[in-house]
Amino acid sequence: MLDLWPTDIINPRLRAPITILKEQAILLQQKTNGVIHAQVKRLKPESQLNKENGIFFYEFQVIAPSLQDYQYRLFTISHEIELYPITLETDKIIARELGNDNNDPIILKSEPDYIERLRKIFCTKKTKKIINAMIAQSVEIEDPVETILTG
To answer: What's the confidence (pLDDT) of residue 150?
Structure first.
């Protein structure tokens, strides 16, 4: 049989953007000793998906399970099948911290650009403030001293 496929057709180092997000979700849960979780949700807006040119939409949420699964969406991403470029959108406070005063969608053309932008989002004051507030309230709810005093 004649093989016409190139030998380098598969790139084992290529990772999908969602894979990188899922890795970060695991790391956040580990760093917070399980108090805070993160979730990557695939969004399926019917009007945006079609068979010719499907666009993948995801949102990255931080979650406090002990606060009745309170969720805060840090950002959303979207991309076509080729993975890059990625369009990333954050809330306006995070956008301002990153120098994006108009909160315009950010276009990331490569995996290194994407990883660097994620690092910046995770390091913003707003992100840290949200996570610390979630932790503080989760610990308050789980505090056994309160149960003893009120029980």
So the answer is: 54
